[in-house]
Amino acid sequence: MTITGEIEPVRMIGLHGEATDENRYNRALPDETLRWIYEMMVVTRHLDDELFNLQRQGELALYAPCRGQEAAQVGAAACLRKTDWLFPQFRELGVFVVRGIPAGNVAAVWRGRWHGGLEFSRKRCAPLSISIGTNALHAVGAAMAAQRLREDSVTVAFIGDGATSEGDAHEALNLAAVFNVPCIFFVQNNQWAISVPVSKQCVAPSIAHKAVGYGMPGVRVDGNDALACYAVMAEAAGRCRAGGGPTLIEAMTYRLGPHATSDDPTRYRAQEEVDYWAARDPIPRYRSYLENLDLWTQRDDERLAARSTRLCAELRESVIDTPDPDVNDVFDFVFAEATPDLIEQRRQLGLELAKKA
Length: 357
Ligand SMILES: Cc1ncc(C[n+]2csc(CCOP(=O)(O)OP(=O)(O)O)c2C)c(N)n1
Ligand SMILES: [Mg+2]
Fold this sequence. Notes:
Protein name: Pyruvate dehydrogenase (Acetyl-transferring) E1 component subunit alpha
Cofactor: thiamine diphosphate; Mg(2+)
Bound molecules: thiamine diphosphate, magnesium ion
Organism: Mycobacterium hippophais
Radius of gyration: 21 Å
Keywords: Oxidoreductase, Pyruvate, Thiamine pyrophosphate
């Protein structure tokens, strides 16, 4: 849908799990898909907590938690095909879980052990982009490649409200529109960019409105409503596959935790604001929706809790048990064929290490 001035986000599940009267999108997903979306959100929440704990225990250098953003991430990723390309920023655990990337691989990245842990070629997920906004350009490049190869794949750039202020994001959005590429810009507006509120990033009526200036459809969606996120992404992906070009989606959500494990958000935001959003937690809301449809019971909770516990244990084991990689990986995986400079650097490092041994 093209925005026409209204900024009311698309919402398919009300705050208490009731179906809204939103009828522009398909809500009749198969029961298994509806249940799977919930499972992915709950698993993400548990793994997110475990990653946080692992950092606190000194096992990871840093971690950027996604608590509160599970609906946006899982909803957006769940409607994609495995052949679609993902270009994350750095907070997209829910997207990785949906794509089947083991949380241990994500942990390896935050441990500084293996920066390619998201398996670009096998899982079609680019490495974390700590330089915010840069991944949007990579996504557009990949979409241009898909266009030239006549693939019907879609690429998704996951960026934050803060990243929309970066020149790279502007260039990417404009390029995507001009070349009509199959790229979706999924902006998680979680209200904050570290300690800077979204009011300091954007004074347009919404981030979605900016799509008008680029000449692409813009959609604002309730980012704490997994079904609505799924629906608007499915629509945008369908448009990409039909040659209809890019879409800018703004998912209204909230980062319930700190920016990263080194941040203290109590220094810059009020507890009342956090409480307001905690009461809009996407997970219980979606659970109520499933219960209303008779699609979820307490026995399902028990099964899901066991699954989450197992996945957290696997994550912990993989972090603690896996040996550090060979330092030469730094040189071996830069180019398909090492350049003379890299070969020389590799030789020099080998000599240094031999001295120390
Ligand atoms: C190019 C660049 N400039 C500055 C930073 C420092 N930085 C790290 S995260 C961040 C804010 C990101 O905010 P947002 O895009 O809203 O994502 P969120 O952290 O809310 O998920 C900034 C400015 C960076 N990583 N990269
Ligand atoms: Mg943000």
